[in-house]
Amino acid sequence: MKVLVAVKRVIDYNVKIRVKSDNSGVETTNVKMSMNPFDEIAVEEAIRLKEAGGVDETVAVSIGPARCEETIRTALAMGVDRGIRIETDAGIEPLAVAKMLKEVVGKEAPDLVLMGKQAIDDDCNQTGQMLAALLGWAQGCFVSKLDIEGDRVKVTREVDGGLETDVLKMPAVVTVDLRLNVPRYATLPNIMKAKKKTIETMWPEDLGVDIASRLTIRSVTEPPRRDAGSIVGGVSELVDKLRNEAKVI
Ligand code: AMP
Question: Is the peptide bond before 171 cis (omega within 30 degrees of 0)?
Fold first, then answer.
């Protein structure tokens, strides 16, 4: 059984995002980039499945600029077997990503594709669903538990008011949620070993995918500033302020 994991290079979640002065997007120059946190969870799950004995090979794929290689190396250092990098400097949208992943799936024939439920930069939460639709495969989204049972994968999803359990016939696309696992840190020996693992490079043209943008971003702005709060002396002062300053009661 083969597992393909999609890993996206995004602005590190600890970085305070700055909007560009021309409001065309967010600043990425000289900003720390890392693997999308949900994708780290997907990578961890792929490695655990292999360690449990049910999976023969794990492959990480990332689409974006040349530096996505670092993101793939992180996955390799965690324990993934090999990588595929699809290089483009264009801003790519979920549909284009899903179409390219579909072509990679066609070449690699994995039984399971693991992805993050969403990328923390665009917050789209679309790529996994689009990929499953393009492939005509079963999909399980926002998965917090996953078990392989023969040619099926049993997934638990956190839904409003409880947990939903679905059984998907493989091949399938699964997008993972925060509670699925806690990703491991790559150890130094494994970082060294990862340098020797193979990363194949492809370009969107090789895959015959039109990555032209279908969205126009009109403007990106900072959220409105919130005024500083104040500490009131007691209930009567609070009621007075609500009535006479905020005029909400
Ligand atoms: P999104 O639909 O943009 O929120 O992304 C959902 C998931 O799709 C991510 O967590 C990744 O697993 C995958 N994905 C999105 N964009 C890329 C990309 N450029 N390269 C690799 N995987 C991606």
Answer: yes
Judged by phi (left if over 0) then psi (alpha if -120 to 50, else beta), residue 225 lies in beta
- Ligand 1 centroid–CA 167 distance in Å is 23
Q: Which of 68, 81, 76, 53 is nearest to 8 (CA)?
A: 68
* Ligand 1 geometric centre to CA of 232 (Å): 46
pLDDT digits 0-9 by tens, 34-89: 999 999 999 999 999 999 998 999 999 999 999 999 999 999 999 999 999 999 99
Domains observed in the chain: 2-217 (3.40.50.620)
Q: 26 pairs with which residues across the strands? A: 19
Q: 86: Cβ below 6 Å to ligand 1?
A: no
Site to substitute for ligand 1 among 36, 93, 207, most atoms within 8 A of C-beta? 36
Is residue 43 within 6 Å of ligand 1 at its C-beta?
no
CA atoms within 13 Å, Cβ hemisphere of 59: 22
Provide the 3-class DSSP secondary structure of residue 215: coil
